[in-house]
Structure formats: structure tokens, C-alpha cells
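It is worth pausing here to work through a concrete case rather than discussing structure prediction in the abstract. The textbook approach is simple: state the sequence, then state the predicted structure, then interpret. We follow exactly that order.
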Amino acid sequence: MIGKANARMAGALFLISTAAYLIGSGLLNPLLEQGDVLAGLYADRSNVMAGLFLELINALAVAGIAMLLYPALKKHNEAFAIGYFGSRIIESVILLVSLAAPVVLVAMSKDYAATETTSRSSLQAIANAAVETHFILFELAMIVLGFGSFLLCYVLYRARLVPRFLSVIGFVGYAGLLTSSCLAIAGHDAGAALYIPGAIFEIVLPLWLLIKGFNDRAEKS
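Step two, the predicted structure:
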């Protein structure tokens, strides 16, 4: 019963994490991608803070998922369970660190209009570096997520905790995520297509966990 309850709570956190990230990044990223990011960021600080709050929820939910899934995964492969748990904690920490950049940018933006024109170029250069750091940290977090989730999908597949087709979708999805994030760090835009299998997995898996939980026979074996 405890294992099924943990699986259902993990499923709920998967959905909360996904929703929080999608809405939070939808609020935050367009503001960070402006050409002159410091010019209007302070005026839009309410949207920035709302986006940061939602991305904070995402980062905390990631850690919660790791804690809830660890006991079930440990029964079938302790080393991979530890690896998955560690990867999600590292991902959570990287995501939390990445949120510092927008906070600093809002503070810089507050006094930007009153700054002498000669100093603005240097401030903008710092701001651009902060924005780039924020996005690179996100991609690093996704690389950690990708590698760690291979371990999750392996245990799910071998132990038949969920239908095997779902684990296979996970393998394909996280391979796409890894490829996309590595290309992004190298300065190439891979487009949205590589995210589709992973998006399917991170919607279908939590729904499965909420409705069915893990396979009872697999949990008892």
C-alpha cells in the first residue's frame, strides 16, 4: 500500500512539475530573451517573480519525485535507484542555482534607466552573460535528468513496474532530451521535435501512476 501511495504521489508531482515549468518558463523566458533585457525587466518584475516561483516549485517537485520513487526502485536495482535519486537531486540543485540570475537581473534593471549611457553597454554585457548562464544551467540540468532517467527507465523496463512500451517511450524521449540539450549548449537549435517523446512519457507515466500505481506483482517480487 505504501509503495502504491508513493507511486501515486510521485505521479502527482510529475504533473505539478511539468505544469509549473511550462507556465513558469512561459512567463520568464520571453522577458529574458528581449534584446535589451535590462530596459523593461523591472517593470515586468511581477511576471518575473511569478515565473521564478513556479520554477522553484518545479525544482522542489523534482527532488520530491526522487524521494518517492527511491524505495520502489531500490527493491529491484539498488545501484540504479541511488543513481536516479542522486541525479534528480543534482538536477534540482542546478535548477535552483539557475534562478539566481533573473533575481540579479531584476535588481540591475531597477536602476538601469538612471545609469549613464556610457555605463549601459557594460551592464548589458553582464546581463547577457547572466541570461546565458541561466539557460546553460537549465540545459545542464536536462542533461543530468536525461542520464538519470535512463536508469529509471531501465529499472521500470526490467522489473515491469509499468507496461514496457511506456519504458521504451521513456528511453527514446530522454535520448532526444540529451541530444537537444547537448546541441543547445553547443549553440545549435534542434527544434521542438526531439522533446515530443519525452513529453509523452512525462504525461502518460504520471497518469499511469495516479490511476494504476506500480505493477503489484513486480513490487512483490
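Step three, interpretation. The chain has one domain: 2-220. Residues 4 and 213 are 5 Å apart (CA to CA).
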